[in-house]
Amino acid sequence: MKALIIGAGIGGMSAAAALKQQGIECAIFEAVKDIKPVGAALSIWSNGVKCMNHLGMGSIMDELGGPMHNMAYLDGLSGAVMTKFSLAPLVEAVGERPCPVSRADLQSQMIDWWGRDSIQFGKRIEKVEQSDTGVTAYFTDGTQAFGDFMVAADGTHSAVRAHVLGYQTERRYAGYVNWNGLVAIDESIAPGNQWTTFVGEGKRVSMMPIADDRFYFFFDVPLPTGLAQDRSTVVNDLTGYFAGWAEPVQKLIAAIDPDTTNRIEIHDIEPFDTLVKGNIALLGDAAHSTTPDIGQGGCSALEDAVVLGQCFSAEAKNVSGMLAALKNYEEARRLRVKDLVLKARKRCDVTHGKNMQETQAWYDELRRETGENIIAGLRTTILEGPLA
């Protein structure tokens, strides 16, 4: 049995790993010739780390995961600590640590783990055709590939999604712009073993430690969509948006490299129930494009892959078994991923001042927070995954 994997990102590579465990041949096709990840880093929470372990790639997380032992929220303007607590109770409760990682390093190591030479790059899918005997992918370079089934992990701008759904989806602007990148850890800005977040005015500045003594940083600012952007003005733009904010924020702005800082308008897509059409399955951002506000985008793609493999392990390796496995995957994932997208959307609105009364109430809650409530929320999200 042969699977066509469309996309060599985190979702595609993890899907291939999961199917390989079940003895299924995988052909991987990636649209670009040289992968340049969108975003400098991402948070892989404990559920995602468990998935990487399950897929045989846990050593990658051991190497790339930063030492994120504590969590703190600070008042953006005064710099005063609102709450600070250890993440050790969370790790103890769920059985695994969270791992903030460089996105480029993670994707590169997943590709190397699979075998870079066995992935076909520069293969942008143009259309698909399905039949009772298989699925054919047609690429823009005039080539084509045939397999028994397809896993479309081709991202938020998926070319396959409309074929599966029968309609084009619209991306929804979440209302804020995110700047992100990497800088060397500076203890005068934030502790090197802590996820530190400054909040105020519906804005956010955050730093997570990753491997090699680096912070993954991001700035969030509620702004209209479609504003002009220019790397040369990044420092001046952020200086203006965060005028009057605490000294560590100003130090961080001064430390960033505009040439390696990403500016992204944050979007999501309204959740949908159809993840599978016959012998084609959507996975990762193609199936559930979310805002990054609860840090579950990468994790949910990894969960998808694990569940896909589990479904195939329970089904016979013939056409009827394959179709049943794909439908079981859809049934197992559709409510989970919808819940994660909507949770992220709700957190996004509160964090970024959609209703400033609600946002101010959240700031007030943070000043009373001991860590128990935040950890309880994280624990619930993690333990609802497939490898609890």
From TrEMBL:
Keywords: FAD, Flavoprotein, Monooxygenase, NAD, Oxidoreductase, Purine metabolism
Residues of the FAD-binding domain: 2-341
Keyword Transferase: no
Claim: Ribonucleoprotein is one of the keywords in the record: no
Catalytic activity line of the entry: urate + NADH + O2 + H(+) = 5-hydroxyisourate + NAD(+) + H2O
This protein's pathway: Purine metabolism; urate degradation
Cofactor(s) this protein requires: FAD
Pfam family, one: FAD_binding_3
Top-rank taxon, per record: Bacteria
GO biological process, one term: purine nucleobase metabolic process
Enzyme Commission number, as recorded: 1.14.13.113
Molecular function GO terms recorded: FAD binding; FAD-dependent urate hydroxylase activity; urate oxidase activity
Family: Belongs to the FAD-dependent urate hydroxylase family.
PANTHER family: MONOOXYGENASE, PUTATIVE (AFU_ORTHOLOGUE AFUA_6G14510)-RELATED
Name recorded for this polypeptide: FAD-dependent urate hydroxylase
